[in-house]
From TrEMBL:
<dbReference type="GO" id="GO:0000049">
    <property type="term" value="F:tRNA binding"/>
</dbReference>
<feature type="binding site">
    <location>
        <position position="244"/>
    </location>
    <ligand>
        <name>Mg(2+)</name>
    </ligand>
</feature>
<dbReference type="Pfam" id="PF02912">
    <property type="entry name" value="Phe_tRNA-synt_N"/>
</dbReference>
<comment type="similarity">
    <text>Belongs to the class-II aminoacyl-tRNA synthetase family. Phe-tRNA synthetase alpha subunit type 1 subfamily.</text>
</comment>
<dbReference type="GO" id="GO:0000287">
    <property type="term" value="F:magnesium ion binding"/>
</dbReference>
<dbReference type="Pfam" id="PF01409">
    <property type="entry name" value="tRNA-synt_2d"/>
</dbReference>
<dbReference type="GO" id="GO:0004826">
    <property type="term" value="F:phenylalanine-tRNA ligase activity"/>
</dbReference>
<keyword id="KW-0547">Nucleotide-binding</keyword>
<dbReference type="GO" id="GO:0006432">
    <property type="term" value="P:phenylalanyl-tRNA aminoacylation"/>
</dbReference>
<keyword id="KW-0436">Ligase</keyword>
<keyword id="KW-0963">Cytoplasm</keyword>
<dbReference type="GO" id="GO:0005737">
    <property type="term" value="C:cytoplasm"/>
</dbReference>
<dbReference type="GO" id="GO:0005524">
    <property type="term" value="F:ATP binding"/>
</dbReference>
<dbReference type="InterPro" id="IPR002319">
    <property type="entry name" value="Phenylalanyl-tRNA_Synthase"/>
</dbReference>
<dbReference type="InterPro" id="IPR010978">
    <property type="entry name" value="tRNA-bd_arm"/>
</dbReference>
<dbReference type="InterPro" id="IPR022911">
    <property type="entry name" value="Phe_tRNA_ligase_alpha1_bac"/>
</dbReference>
<comment type="subunit">
    <text>Tetramer of two alpha and two beta subunits.</text>
</comment>
Length: 329
C-alpha cells in the first residue's frame, strides 16, 4: 500500500490529486483509520510492533503528501494550482509615436526626398529672431503680450518657426534649403482648431532665380505626397511682414471630398498655413544680397495636417492623452 501511495504522490499533477491521496489514505474512511480500527484484534504481544509499523506508514504517507504539495507549489509560484502552458500569453502594452510626431516625421521624410535638410531652433527665442529680423514692425499686433508669452528677461516663447529661417541664414551662406519642425506658442483661447501651443514645419529655399511658381509646385507636390493625387491646393493673397508677396494656403478636404464635414468646418477646404517669397528686407538683415538671391518660405500647421489625415474634428483630442484615443494610431 505504501509503494502505491508513493507512486500516486509522485504522479499527482495538481492539488486535487494530492487531496485525493490524503482522503484515500488518511481521510475518515481511508486506509489508515480502517487499519486503526483493526488494532483491537491484534494479539497483545504483537501490538507494539504493529503499532510502530502503523505509525511509520502513516507518517510516510503524510510526508509523501507534503512533498507532492511542495513540488506543485514551486512549479506554479505558490498559488497551489498548476500552470496551463496552452493559455495564450498576456499582451504587452507597447508605447507608440504620438500622431503629431508621426505627421512631423512624415513631412520631414517628404521634404528630405526633395533635397531639404532639417534645421532646428530654440523654443525660448529672443525678440530679434522672432520679430525684428523678420521685418515685423514695432507696432505689429503679434508682438502684443496679449498674443505672445513674454519672460521677465524680455525673451519670449517663439510664436512661429520662422525665426529658424533667420538662424540658418545668419550661419550659412546661400543657397539654403531647409525644413524646421517644432513647437510654437500663442496666447490663443483653445478651441477645436486653436491651441496655446501647436506645431509647425517651416520651409526655406534660397537660391538664384527662385520664383512663386517654384513655391506653388513644392506645395502641390507635398500635398500629393501626403494625401494622394486627389488633393488640391488653393493660395489666397495674404500679408506677412517677412514675405512679399504672401499667401495663405488651403488643402481641399479629402475627408469629405469637398462636400463639407466637421474637419473642414463644412467649407471643403482646410487652412494649412502661410507662405510667400522671402522679403528683400529679410535677406538684407542676414547679409544676403537681394539682387543676387531670392527664395520662398512656408510654414504649415502640423495639427491641421493631422486633422486632415486622421479625420480629427477637434485638435484638443491630440493633447488630452486619453489612451483610448492615442491607441488608434
Ligand atoms: N510664420 C507664419 C505663421 O506662423 C507662417 C509663414 C511662414 C508665412 C513662412 C510665410 C512664410 O503664420
Amino acid at each position: 500500500a505504501l509503494a502505491e501511495a508513493g507512486a500516486k504522490a509522485a504522479a499527482a499533477a495538481d492539488a486535487a490529486a494530492v487531496e485525493q491521496i490524503r482522503i484515500d489514505y488518511l481521510g475518515r474512511n481511508g486506509l489508515f483509520p480502517a487499519l486503526s480500527k483493526e488494532m483491537g484484534s491484534v494479539p497483545p504481544e504483537e501490538r507494539k510492533d504493529t503499532g510502530r509499523a502503523f505509525n511509520t506508514g502513516r507518517n510516510k504517507v503524510q510526508e509523501l503528501i507534503d512533498a507532492a504539495t511542495a513540488r506543485l507549489a514551486s512549479a506554479d509560484g505558490g498559488s497551489g494550482e498548476a500552470i496551463d502552458l496552452s493559455l495564450p500569453g498576456r499582451r504587452w502594452k507597447t508605447g507608440r509615436k504620438h500622431p503629431i510626431t508621426m505627421l512631423a516625421d512624415e513631412c520631414v521624410a517628404i521634404f528630405r526626398r526633395m533635397g531639404f535638410i532639417v534645421a532646428e531652433g530654440p523654443e525660448i527665442e529672443d525678440i530679434f529672431h522672432n520679430f525684428d529680423a523678420l521685418n515685423t514692425p514695432q507696432d505689429h499686433p503679434s508682438r502684443d503680450p496679449q498674443d505672445t508669452f513674454y519672460f521677465n528677461d524680455g525673451r519670449i516663447l517663439r510664436t512661429q518657426t520662422s525665426p529658424v529661417q533667420i538662424r540658418v541664414m545668419e550661419s550659412h551662406e546661400p543657397p539654403v534649403r531647409i525644413v524646421a519642425p517644432g513647437r510654437v506658442f500663442r496666447r490663443d483661447t483653445p478651441d477645436a482648431t486653436h491651441g496655446m501651443n501647436f506645431h509647425q514645419i517651416e520651409g526655406l529655399y534660397i537660391d538664384k532665380g527662385v520664383s512663386m511658381a517654384d513655391l506653388k509646385s513644392i506645395l502641390q507636390t507635398f500635398a500629393t505626397e501626403m494625401y494622394g493625387p486627389k488633393v488640391k491646393i488653393r493660395l489666397r493673397p495674404h500679408f506677412f511682414p517677412f514675405t512679399e508677396p504672401s499667401v495663405e494656403y488651403d488643402f481641399s478636404c479629402i475627408m469629405c471630398g469637398g462636400k463639407g464635414c466637421p474637419v473642414c468646418k463644412h467649407s471643403g477646404w482646410i487652412e494649412i498655413a502661410g507662405a510667400g517669397m522671402v522679403d528683400p528686407a529679410v535677406l538684407k538683415n542676414v547679409g544676403y544680397d537681394p539682387e543676387v538671391w531670392s527664395g520662398y518660405a512656408f510654414g504649415m500647421g502640423i495639427e491641421r495636417l493631422a486633422m486632415l489625415r486622421y479625420r480629427i474634428p477637434d485638435l484638443r483630442l491630440l493633447y488630452e492623452n486619453d489612451v483610448r484615443f492615442l491607441e488608434q494610431f
